[in-house]
Amino acid sequence: MKKSVTRIILLLIVVLFGGAMYYLYQKNSEDPVVYDTDQASTQTIIKKTVATGSILPLEEVLIKPNISGVIEEVFVEGGDYVKSGDLICRIKVVPNLNALNDARNAIDEAKIGLNDQLRNLERQKGLFAKGVISKVDLERAQVTYDQAKQGYGAANKRYDIVKTGTTKGYGNAANTQIRATVSGMVLEVPVEVGNQVIESNNFNEGTTIAAIADVEKMIFEGKVDESEVGKIKENLPLEITVGAIENKVFDAVLDYIAPKGKEENGAIQFEIKGTMKKQDTVFIRAGLSANASIILARADSVLAVKEALVQFDADTKKPFVEIENGDQKFVRKDVELGVSDGIFVEVKSGVKSEDKIKVWNAIESGEGDSN
After folding, report:
1. What are phi and psi of 270, to 5 degrees?
2. Residue 172 — very low, low, confident or very high, per pLDDT cuts 50/70/90?
3. Is a pLDDT exceeding 90 seen at residue 369?
4. 289-326 burial, b for 16+ CB within 10 Å, e for fewer?
5. Cβ atoms 85, 175 nearer than 8 A
């Protein structure tokens, strides 16, 4: 019995020893873990955020009539350059019957008053000739007659203005002639001959006859999300790209950030504006959609590494990399980081250009360089 137990124990020891040896053999026969390495390089790093919007004139003036009527003739079209005072169009007045009737009645009343004052003046002249009244009384009668005559003339001019929009002696000041109030390019003429237009007054903004702007002074107008507005500030440089103009970047300066946001599709958006630098060779049309890259920070020709190579200490949260100091042997080096664009990050200290930095992901031996 004792011999059987001893044999069983010896057999178990042999089996366990054999299993251990087999495990060690298999372990030693596996390929070793190999880590790839990368090196720092000289990069120009630009940290930026993007805003979408459009290109608009800095100042756009809408030309509106100060009299209602029908467009009789148009003298300009979109793309024309005009100077202040140039004729834009002519309006034919369609008189209001009530106003026309009132003006006609005013003429009749003024005529009656004039005739009455004429009779009175003749009567006063006769009395003065007989020595009944003084010269002062005669002069007073003459003044009253002259005032009645002037009122009659004014009533006739009022009638002409109501009927035709102008009257004798006003020339270029006639309301029917719509002129440019500023110099610039005509962006659009939204009316045609025969269109009826409404005058601009305190109760109605009126019909737009033309839009004029100085196209040499253009701005980018766009919106940024509330998550980005805290990163930007006025006077930051902008790089404008226009979809309709390929391979061209326009420089601008951010000069306005709205103090109040507006909700759009469930998100708060803030309006921004940037003044573009004058373009001598490229004509940018108003209303073109564009994207603006807002340059938050920039580092030119600096030593940088890929952000994927940087690790962070679990306790201190400080960045570090692992530098190779032997065959597949690495040592930790703390680093000081600078500007990052999401792919590369500036390394201010801790790494040299010749250092081989450990790539986190291990590769199988024999795969070769993974870069």
Report:
1. -115, 130
2. very low
3. no
4. ebbbbbbbeebeebbbbbeebbeeeeeeeebebbbeee
5. no
pLDDT digits (tens, 9 = 90+) for 323-353: 888 787 888 889 999 988 888 999 998 888 8
Whether 138 contacts 124, CB under 8 Å: yes
Q: pLDDT digits over 19-47, tens only?
A: 777 666 665 555 566 778 888 889 999 88
Measured CA to CA, the distance from residue 279 to residue 295 in angstroms comes to 21
Beta bridge partners of 186: 212
Average the pLDDT over each of 73-87, 154-168, 265-279 and give the range with the smallest value.
154-168
Alpha carbon distance 112, 115 (integer Å) = 5
CA distance 69 to 96: 10
Q: Is the dihedral of CA 180, 181, 186, 192 positive or negative?
A: negative
By three-state DSSP, how is residue 197 classified? strand
Indicate the Cα dihedral angle 43, 49, 54, 57, nearest 10°. -80
